[in-house]
Amino acid sequence: MNQDSDSSDQPTGQDPLLLLKTLQLLWTKQEQRKQLKEEVRRGFAGLEDPLAGLLAMLENSSDWKGKGHSLGYYITTELQLWIKEHPAVPQSGIQLKKLQARVLRILSQCPANLLDPLISIYQLHTADRNYLLEHVSHLYLKGDYKEAAILSIKLKLQPDQDVEKMCIPLLLQDKVNVVEDYVGEYPELQSKLLQILDSWCEPGVNIRDITRPYQGLSRYKPEKFNHRTLSKLVFRLLDRFHVDPALCPNVVNQRHLRTLNYLFYKRFVEKTMTEENWADHVQSTAGDSRCLQGHLVQLLLRHCPGRAARWARHWGLPMDVLPPGLAEELPELHTQQRVEEATKADNYEDSKKKDCYQLPISRENIHFLQTWEETLQCWEKVLQPGQVVGVDMEWKPSFGMVGKPRVALLQMAVKDEVFLLDLPRLLEQAELEGEKEKEKLPQFIQMLYSDAAITKLGYGMSGDLSSLAATCSALKDIEKQLHGVVDLLTVDKQLQKGCGEWRKDGRKVDGLSPEHSHEERGVRQREKGLSLLVHHVLGKPLDKTEQLSNWEKRPLREEQILYAASDAYCLLEIYERLCRDPESFGLSSDLMESLVGKRSIKPRAKKQLNKQEALSPSGQQCQGSQMETSRAPAPVSPREFSVVCDNMLQGLGRYLRCLGVDVRMLDNEDDHRKAAEIARQEGRVILTSGLPYQTLQSQVGEGRCFSVNCSEKAKEQALQVLKHFNVQVSLSDIFSRCQRRDQLQ
Predict the structure, then answer these.
(1) Distances in whole angstroms, Cα of residue 454 to Cα of each of 388, 412, 414, 447, 594
(2) Rounded CA separation 447/559 (Å)
(3) In CATH, what number is assigned to the domain containing residue 697?
(4) Has residue 340 been placed in a domain?
(5) pLDDT digits (tens, 9 = 90+) for 398-442
(6) Based on C-alpha coordinates, what's the Rg of the chain?
């Protein structure tokens, strides 16, 4: 390189390889990293051409080729920052093209973290597009399919490439994530890829014919490339890219065929689906497809020819699909079948009453709500401090089709009553009535789930809340606002862990329900989830024959209404039973400890603190409002006592402030965990209630978190806090921090 004759702190024209050796020496010494940064900066300033110098250093070292943080990566990112501070440095014209040709050879070997900095430094987005495509093609021909695809993504070359050619090798190497990224920003490529994959699922297409040219492929995984895995991939891509499933008729048809097989099994083998539900789903699944209709008729011919003939006539199928003479026998078969079904239905109802959980409330106490005015009676009863509410949701089964399920029915059960909210109808009405009305229903649901003074019971609530968010966009963040939520699935897991070993036939060695022996219960293997928990705790399982109903169809049948009410109301009975006698089910004597995974079946030693035990600011041991020891903690004045109130205790906070206590209160939108941050930073005691107590007490020092009874008024809550921490209030303290005397009244 030419040496510059101008004098400076660092001579220009420095050899980049000498600079590299200096940097390599400093890189090995952790304590000299600061000097390394300074040396890099001086080195850039001393190079005649920093861009060419970086390439020389990368070409003459290899540490950057591995994964992770390397000296090569460090030098590259430092140069990227240095260029921003020295905008005159970047090259242009013929010299830049030469540098781009050199850097492309490096890009084919470098890890992902180096791609973006090098592409930016050498302005590869301005390079000749044909030259870039030729380079990627060279990588592809060498068998570097992943590297070719990633470089194409970074340089945005996909529109000029053959999507099928680029993606097939990646799919065969199980690099699906790279394929998804490759088409991710191009809707037209997404559609083209999906059509290609769907064409491979067409009946008669042999997948081996497609994969044969790639059998010598490295990391080839042919077992990952079959009709079933392709079908799953297509549905995942349809969902991710929000593409109309009609674009992929072959995989959709295959999914419908499997659905018909499943429905047939549920109705005629397992016998856990009613005739009405089965017929409804069969009709919607088969639709107008002669192929699907014929498939169902052939299934029915093996078990119930009369039904096969009826469905063939219903769909107008040619009678030659039926065995000879069957069409003529149809009226007689139809009458015989109706008599058999009626007899079976009567027998089933009697069996259900005997063997399954029965709703303990009258039908008139189940309310189906379709207007905002009707829902007001629900809000008044549900939004009561101290209320316990069983919450469940129903939606139409998707049978594996695209999209998240949308809630069709929201059930809320309180003592002696159940409210069934027709969610689609309520949301539709609100949409028509304007912006203000549209917010009412989501606001109520948010109030319910965020109020720690109301206990919400559910079973597997995460899935319910995800579907709720998909149904109403205003509730998309509802999972971040949960307070006072009890997921009985958590209790169920604790219960099953702590109560003996399961036999292979689905029975426990020792009984979970203290009232029934395992012989009496006869737990069948097919029972699972909430039904099994109901069986364990209440003695009888839920009747699940309506589970796969079409919950979007109106009006709901009476059986659906009773099923939906039972699913919500049984949560109340389970919770009440477990709270009354948790130890008989192998749970901790404090059910809340079971909910957070603190199983403690053995009695605690006397020296240990119980759930509500705490240390006062003076360091004395307390339990609730009573002292564990006979000696009370040293008295403190309100001015020496500082607290942070959770957002459900704002009334208590205002009351304590009027008594002279130093109070900070969380805002309504604050997460309750913010209380722990404030408590740690400012040395405050946290005042909270319900489930947040379980989380917050572990985030602060012992005795620095106190649980308040939310069902009491602010005055009683304040007295409880003052007594617990032995805060002595004098007349001079009252209103010392509070300007409005009416808050005390």
Answers:
(1) 6, 13, 11, 10, 19
(2) 31
(3) 3.40.50
(4) no
(5) 888 877 889 999 999 999 999 999 999 999 998 888 777 788 899
(6) 35
